[in-house]
Task: structure prediction
Amino acid sequence: DAGVTQSPTHLIKTRGQHVTLRCSPISGHKSVSWYQQVLGQGPQFIFQYYEKEERGRGNFPDRFSARQFPNYSSELNVNALLLGDSALYLCASSPAVQGRASQYFGPGTRLTVL
Amino acid sequence: GENVEQHPSTLSVQEGDSAVIKCTYSDSASNYFPWYKQELGKGPQLIIDIRSNVGEKKDQRIAVTLNKTAKHFSLHITETQPEDSAVYFCAASGLSGTYKYIFGTGTRLKVLA
Result:
């Protein structure tokens, strides 16, 4: 069975640009969460979506937005990129939003902002 | 606020020895505690988890213990092998209605052959 997939693998942008990252969850999973992992640190929660609705938002500016599609795939958008947005962006899927179901992470998208 | 502290930040053990990583969480509402292994250039891989109604869970060479009173949980790896070398993250979750994980800062484990 395919795990969580993310695209692209790597991305280089310049300050002020915007970026769209994509995620496909494990088949049957309806919840997708996004995390930012800066080098040397643990992942930081950005968003959670379940059944196409936002269910949680972390402490990130409004430049960060996301959405979930009817097939449960998801996009993370970041506008007006800053150097500090350089990080590994991780997507995780789980079968439910409650019930303490486990989250499974994809390989991530490495974003470099120059 | 929500916080998970993880120790040590680095750990070197000889092959065959045991490794223990400890985490402390601040939010008493947390009720689910996963552990992830992250190898270079890859996403975190779930290796074991424990729920708040259980004190200990074991899966082959890996075990996790939970002390709810002290808000501590630990990962134990026995008979370590070189392929266990990676960064390990603990996390705490369970805030009502969301799957927001609060991650620890990670432990870089190096198993020396």
